[in-house]
Amino acid sequence: MERVKIGVIGAGRIGKIHIDNLLRLPQVEVAAIGDLFAGPELLAWAAQRGIHSVTQDASAVINHPDIAAIYICSSTDTHVPLITRAAQAGKHIFCEKPVSMDIAQTEEALQAVRRAGVQLQVGFNRRFDHNFKRVREHVLAGAIGEPHIVKITSRDPNPPHNDYIRASGGIFMDMMIHDFDIARYVCGSEVEEVYAQGGVLIDPVFAEHGDIDTAVVTLRFSNGALGVIDNSRRAVYGYDQRVEVFGTKGSVSIANDHPNTAELSTAEGIVREKPLYFFLERYSEAYMEETRIFVDCLVSGKPVPVDGGDGLQAERIASAAKLSHRLGRPVKLAEIGAQLEQASAGE
Amino acid sequence: MERVKIGVIGAGRIGKIHIDNLLRLPQVEVAAIGDLFAGPELLAWAAQRGIHSVTQDASAVINHPDIAAIYICSSTDTHVPLITRAAQAGKHIFCEKPVSMDIAQTEEALQAVRRAGVQLQVGFNRRFDHNFKRVREHVLAGAIGEPHIVKITSRDPNPPHNDYIRASGGIFMDMMIHDFDIARYVCGSEVEEVYAQGGVLIDPVFAEHGDIDTAVVTLRFSNGALGVIDNSRRAVYGYDQRVEVFGTKGSVSIANDHPNTAELSTAEGIVREKPLYFFLERYSEAYMEETRIFVDCLVSGKPVPVDGGDGLQAERIASAAKLSHRLGRPVKLAEIGAQLEQASAGE
Amino acid sequence: MERVKIGVIGAGRIGKIHIDNLLRLPQVEVAAIGDLFAGPELLAWAAQRGIHSVTQDASAVINHPDIAAIYICSSTDTHVPLITRAAQAGKHIFCEKPVSMDIAQTEEALQAVRRAGVQLQVGFNRRFDHNFKRVREHVLAGAIGEPHIVKITSRDPNPPHNDYIRASGGIFMDMMIHDFDIARYVCGSEVEEVYAQGGVLIDPVFAEHGDIDTAVVTLRFSNGALGVIDNSRRAVYGYDQRVEVFGTKGSVSIANDHPNTAELSTAEGIVREKPLYFFLERYSEAYMEETRIFVDCLVSGKPVPVDGGDGLQAERIASAAKLSHRLGRPVKLAEIGAQLEQASAGE
Amino acid sequence: MERVKIGVIGAGRIGKIHIDNLLRLPQVEVAAIGDLFAGPELLAWAAQRGIHSVTQDASAVINHPDIAAIYICSSTDTHVPLITRAAQAGKHIFCEKPVSMDIAQTEEALQAVRRAGVQLQVGFNRRFDHNFKRVREHVLAGAIGEPHIVKITSRDPNPPHNDYIRASGGIFMDMMIHDFDIARYVCGSEVEEVYAQGGVLIDPVFAEHGDIDTAVVTLRFSNGALGVIDNSRRAVYGYDQRVEVFGTKGSVSIANDHPNTAELSTAEGIVREKPLYFFLERYSEAYMEETRIFVDCLVSGKPVPVDGGDGLQAERIASAAKLSHRLGRPVKLAEIGAQLEQASAGE
């Protein structure tokens, strides 16, 4: 069996996770790593894994004749040009979320993908998680009937550092974008209207960046269902990732994953451990799974399960939420982008 | 020990529950029952309990010289006149929720209460429930730090019948009013702004009455916290009553009560029973407790724990939610009542 | 409706519970209380409840011509003579467990009951508990198929005081006797063999009384099922009352009841409260229910659900466990009582 | 870094798992596979993994000069000779459980290991499981004080096939041996006495092999604690793996692992999924972890965490249980082996 050759651009924390996962697939070869800051440390790290082609030049990876697909794990601002170039080079693409923070640019990238006829999978890893998948399966199987209410709780254990916040695109585009995607995924319907409330309740640093750290967003889906998402940048008990879908025939909900099932009963109470700490612990299997499936699609030619359209739609909802929060009123998805530009103009 | 004599007006389902609970208190005598539709059946029911004064005339109960307090359990439209007359007669009052569906009328009733210097407890029974109380205690004790997000789920197992819907005042005033009260109770802060979404997803009969059957309402509290309440008129798995308060130091949440803890593991899965069916089962102890405490306050002269002001505040939030739903925009509590009247005028 | 008149002998803690429960039944009148130590305090307590006949003379209660049934709640050593006299007086009997600590005497009492044709219900309150009942129902309904393994955990929050231990009859006759009854009840089969292990692990005071404080007993049922019961006199986290029945089609298990469902998530972990403290809290509804059903049987003439034979059988298992522990080998139920006497002889 | 070369003998189901886990460790090279039945299929399977040395001759693996350690995953009857030869060849050894079914032979193997000064780790994989480890940690940390009662439930989803049963050594040596090891592990004390009850309740085929399919075994530990283990060869709801340790300061217990946390609430009840199906699913991470730690010990020279003495002790308890079941009385560990031989003689 000839192995699929894959190049990875951006070998930071998430890039390295993807590389290690790719290495566990016998049908894959990680043929090259491109990272702007590649140095001795990365070279050594790669060599340990039998990867000897490491470069600072993304073009060398993209244009490598043997490489069939590119993982784009570099900073968000580089996604659109890299997608565009990779598509033009005829490579399939896996891109971390979000594609970009600008609807128009994202659309531009998707057009390049369409024109080139390549595949683009967006890194909405939660869709590949055992719990979220099970919710979706139950909804699709009709176990809860028609969905009426979708509730998503998504809270991080700790705020990101200052630099991250500044470049993050804000809570809606950086953090809640996962939940917007999950909302569509578990409800099986498109979001039509958004109302966003939020505040700076944890750390004033968010205000300095024009961002917020706590948000509650309600959704109206095209099938009539209502939704609500709550986000917090700091849940001291750990990463809180829960979903509930309620419908005509019942409800399906998922609880958090815990490091073990041990329960300690003492004179003080009954105690179990906090949830798995953060996304690396919580979604380690989901990251593996999304890569396994991406590679399966490459090999078989089947369409990828989360494509550029899904990436775009989540970004549109995030933009609507951002606008709603600024204007203090519900915003229809139909208002994005015209309204967006107008709104930007008034800023 | 002289027993406190109490009169009960309205001996329907909820009135009978209050009577049976009053009879379990050794320091109480149920001295008279007034019910517009009193007939042989009610006379027999009362006689079995040693109550021999049953009348169709509420005034006879209110003006009974030995009676110290009146339970008002008749239909909502009678609450304000009965409160007013009972107050004028110098009786303490326990009144079922809501006091009325009109802020101005409720204020009028409260004024009568204040003028008479009597006590008025409003029947927000959930405050006396073991679970909700525990949430409140944890929040007050600072166990979760400053509250940031309040989430309330409240779903009935089945819609009420047609006649009930017509006179109910709508989902916000009839059903979610309990949740508005609980929101204030567990957050320890006042609601300042409301945004209400809703739809008719269960039964078109709600639309016929200008009502909805499914609603998601977001709240903004004066301490900066955000809140969300979801209501459904039909959860096929039973009465769903959950609350979560999330804050700087953690989160406290309550799950539903179940008829037993039995778990059946078979080849099909792990099954436990649905929650307690409806409010009579779920809150039977809370009804007892609210009456026990009301009587304690009567005897000791201590102020009742849920007074007319609490009743009024919940009604104001319900009115704001109703208005928000009609206007499709967030409504500040400060807009109620001026806006309310204006809005009504425009209807 | 004429009310059933009931006399209560022994108005200690458990007697008072039965009296208060009897008072909640409209078809019952507590006509007299007999207590060896009746004094002003008991008189006042009874008067508050409208009971004005309080005596130190049990005979006066037993022979009271209007009284139809006697509750025997006095110390265990008085049970057999009181049952005998009450039966001879033609009264139905509710007797606290155990009937006695001596199989021969218990059989004597049961003979008196049979001869008199009265009913005798033994106070195995757990059979009326919502959880244990549900286990039994599932087993009877065939939900778990043929039972193979029965597991019972039963631990007290705190050891009884010294005087109680001395007169208790030991852990098997005083505490585990409930579990022996539940084992028969949930398995639907008789115990044929017992092996008892135990030790003094909590407090040497148990050794002083020839007793133990921790025990693990295995059972063999006549249907081939195996069982195990563990008892401890001190579980610092509270009253631990669990059962599991495992069979060909699955398993049914019950968890403890808790005062509320609140769960507190903090940086330290996820905490919920300890189980309900002890039998008074845990089984308050079960006590009510056993009395309600006893009275129903009196009124309807139906046979009581836990009769003298059940009391005897549990005592026989307890005796076998005691013997097994002394001899360090499994003991067949068939060995009780010949073996018992022989063993006693050798002591 | 030079990689540790490891040879694997026996490439059946469990051998393949160990090979795949070894391949995930960058510091390891699987240098050779020895399997009596090695054929084209195994050659292809190995080649896919880059292993090109596959032989039917175990000696070639054992005597391979570059190989530092041997995994023995062949049938139980080959363990003792292979351990002996591997030890004589100066190789470190990982051996699947049990070392053998005969105490004397196991002792012989351990002596060879001691003489050669090599390490021997026995495959008690559950010690490396997240749940069991946590129980142990809590007990060691004193969180539950002095252990008083240890309860272990261990039930397989389905009986093994006929051939397996015949050669298995019986339920105590094949299945409960894991629980005997866990009992020592979580209690932190040695077993001194065993009483075993059991029966053929699932399938008469067990009786044909002189085996049983359901067993309840009680233990007495040298620290005074009592224990109980229940085993069933068929739990229709899946692999049931639970432990509870109860002591002076409380209790720690573990529940089963489930494939996800989804809970479905419908008109029929609240349902979640069955536990992970069997040991391959349930302990996949534990298998990885035991290999990771074995290799760490090889590299660092630290002693392995589960050595031959642990293997021997579990076998001694299994032998005692077997004997107890045959004799129908408790058996002290001190009786094994003299008694064993005597008992065997009488068979």
UniProtKB/TrEMBL annotation, chains A, B, C, D:
<feature type="domain" description="GFO/IDH/MocA-like oxidoreductase">
    <location>
        <begin position="132"/>
        <end position="252"/>
    </location>
</feature>
<dbReference type="Pfam" id="PF01408">
    <property type="entry name" value="GFO_IDH_MocA"/>
</dbReference>
<dbReference type="InterPro" id="IPR000683">
    <property type="entry name" value="Gfo/Idh/MocA-like_OxRdtase_N"/>
</dbReference>
<dbReference type="GO" id="GO:0000166">
    <property type="term" value="F:nucleotide binding"/>
</dbReference>
<dbReference type="Pfam" id="PF22725">
    <property type="entry name" value="GFO_IDH_MocA_C3"/>
</dbReference>
<dbReference type="GO" id="GO:0016491">
    <property type="term" value="F:oxidoreductase activity"/>
</dbReference>
<feature type="domain" description="Gfo/Idh/MocA-like oxidoreductase N-terminal">
    <location>
        <begin position="4"/>
        <end position="124"/>
    </location>
</feature>
<dbReference type="InterPro" id="IPR030827">
    <property type="entry name" value="Myo_inos_IolG"/>
</dbReference>
<dbReference type="InterPro" id="IPR036291">
    <property type="entry name" value="NAD(P)-bd_dom_sf"/>
</dbReference>
<dbReference type="InterPro" id="IPR055170">
    <property type="entry name" value="GFO_IDH_MocA-like_dom"/>
</dbReference>
<protein>
    <submittedName>
        <fullName>Inositol 2-dehydrogenase</fullName>
    </submittedName>
</protein>
<keyword id="KW-0560">Oxidoreductase</keyword>
<comment type="similarity">
    <text>Belongs to the Gfo/Idh/MocA family.</text>
</comment>
